[in-house]
Amino acid sequence: MSLPEEMARIRDLAEAWIIRNIGKKGLFTYSINPYTGEKSEKNNELRQLMSSRTLAEMSVGNLSLRPVHRRNLSFIMNTWYREERGIGYIEYDGKSKLGANAMLLRTFAASPHFGQFQSKARAAAEGILALQNADGSFRPWLKEPNYSFDAKYLLTFYSGEALVALLEYYFRTGLTRYFDEASRSAEFYLDEYVRNIADNYYPAYVPWHTIAYRHLYELTKADKFAEAVFTLNDKLLELQDRSYRIGRFFNPATPQYGLPHASSDGVYTEGLAYAFEMAQRTGDEVRAGRYLDAIMLSLKNIASLQYREKLDESSLPFYAYRGAIRTNAEKNRWARIDNAQHTIDAIQALGNFLGSKQASTFELRL
Fold it and tell me: Which residues contact 20 (CB under 8 A, 6 or more apart)?
């Protein structure tokens, strides 16, 4: 079905900016300040690869994007990809993180050129399993950094990303080994993150584990996965601002969960889209309405952060930032690549799950 007009506008502007944001070498500009024209000297391979996966998915239905996708994928393979003894992985700055390797596998699985990369995708899947412990938990690094790190914190991001990657690879190939191993890891994290949520809660794991459990519910119809999705997302809604910057995911009562950030808003919204679909699938109309309302508020906030008008203060041409999404409404004017990428993925997911009557209502309320 067609998306509601305002939702499609947010997505289309963000997609156009992402495509314009790819340099000649095939790498996305990581972050830009439209007011000053500065480009960040920082980079993050995991966020780059999340955007690579989004571009791969966009190019499935848009043939004109395939050369851009191939250029981006060529950069990744020629610059960051390594393979040793059947293990494929991303190496960046001497390190190899589980999350980046998961996003590499997701990019392969989403690509219209998957057939050309089947052996590399299999190696990347094996690279993820190389970081799986006997109890199903993961380790965060294939090649560790030379500084101390908080593995538990890193895995609030990486563990769900790895689960989603393995399941998407299973959907693409039908290779049951990867479904079985993802299921084994899911059992560990159901205990860690859902049954023991009071002790271990951190909102970053909610969207990735939501997507993974939704996939596992689709494959198994096991009630425990639906219940996990609801437990996680009911808790997440406590974070959404309903009084000041309405719709953003930030609660000043819990500053330990991070500062306001459009990237977080986008990925939480994507997770809520899957939770909404789960509520619909199981006939839970109350939760479906609650999740859809939260999504509506979030997208309204994200739309307010999107650069849609030419800035008189900026010396940059309008196309350089049109459609980009600033990090927050306070002091951070920078537009980072994953701010746009997560928003695109959220809207795409929601569009897949909305019925025509709901879409019409959503458009009027937004």
Answer: 319, 320
